[in-house]
């Protein structure tokens, strides 16, 4: 299985809403004691544990699919899991699905174009900005103070869910780990 966290490289984006996928992969690397692989030809940071791989594409969000496709093809991986931020879900939501549309998310759009739509999505709700014209600045801004207080717990739960996907069906993981509404206080 290839587990991908979507995000943008560099310290400027490290703690932004758009980088929640990177945050989950970083935590999984620690938890699973994954070993870093040489990955210059994959345009990403690639790690391995057991017979599974963790990837943080370093192509910037809009070209994530290029990195994912390169790793998938080279290692002949069938099953892909993509962890990403989702504007259509309230902050702290955790949902799972296979396939579907990209909903305007450029990282998913790139992934769809490069490997097809048939991959598992770990959807992490980040909420919406007040005005539609603020989407770009919203996803590229840091989580607010209230959200930051719950970030560690939420990322940890997402990690548990992804680890569970290694041994259980999507339906079982979804039934156990779906969070429909997260209480900030």
Walk me through what this model shows.
This protein has a seven-stranded mixed sheet, sandwiched between helices. It has one domain: Peptidyl-tRNA hydrolase (Rossmann fold), CATH 3.40.50. The protein is globular and about 40 Å long. The chain has six helices and seven strands, in the order βαβββαββαβααα. The mean pLDDT is 94. It is of the alpha/beta class and 185 residues long. A hairpin with a 2-residue loop joins strand 3 (44-49) and strand 4. It has helices at residues 20-31, 64-74, 106-115, 135-139, 145-165, 170-177, and strands at 2-5, 35-37, 44-49, 52-57, 80-86, 94-98, 120-125. The longest helix is centred in the last third of the chain and has 21 residues, at 145-165.
List the helices and strands and how they pair.
Blueprint: E1 2-5, H1 20-31, E2 35-37, E3 44-49, E4 52-57, H2 64-74, E5 80-86, E6 94-98, H3 106-115, E7 120-125, H4 135-139, H5 145-165, H6 170-177
Helix pairs in contact: 1-5, 2-3, 5-6
Quick tags:
185 residues; globular; Rossmann fold; seven-stranded mixed beta sheet; 20% strand; single chain; cytoplasm; alpha/beta
Short overview:
The chain has 185 residues and is an alpha/beta fold.
What CATH architecture would you give? Answer: 3-Layer(aba) Sandwich
Beta content: 15-25%
Q: What is the CATH class name?
A: Alpha Beta
Order of helices and strands: EHEEEHEEHEHHH
Tally of domains: 1
GO molecular function, one term: tRNA binding
Subunit structure: Monomer.
Site (Discriminates between blocked and unblocked aminoacyl-tRNA): 8
Family: Belongs to the PTH family.
């Amino acid at each position: 299985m290839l587990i991908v966290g979507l995000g943008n490289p560099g310290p400027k984006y490290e703690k932004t809403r758009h980088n929640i996928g990177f945050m989950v992969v970083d935590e999984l690397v620690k938890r699973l004691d994954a070993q870093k692989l040489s990955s210059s030809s994959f345009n990403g940071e690639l790690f391995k544990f057991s017979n599974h791989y963790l990837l943080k594409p370093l192509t910037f969000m809009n070209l994530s699919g290029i990195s994912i496709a390169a790793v998938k093809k080279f290692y002949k991986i069938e099953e892909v899991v993509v962890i990403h931020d989702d504007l259509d879900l309230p902050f702290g939501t955790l949902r799972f699905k296979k396939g579907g549309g990209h909903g305007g998310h450029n990282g998913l759009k790139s992934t769809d174009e490069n490997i097809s739509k048939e991959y598992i999505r770990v959807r992490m709700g980040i909420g919406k900005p007040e005005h539609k014209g603020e989407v770009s600045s919203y996803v590229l801004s840091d989580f607010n103070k209230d959200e930051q207080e719950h970030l560690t717990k939420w990322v940890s739960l997402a990690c548990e869910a992804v680890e569970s996907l290694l041994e259980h069906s999507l339906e079982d993981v979804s039934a156990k780990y779906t969070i429909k509404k997260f209480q900030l206080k």
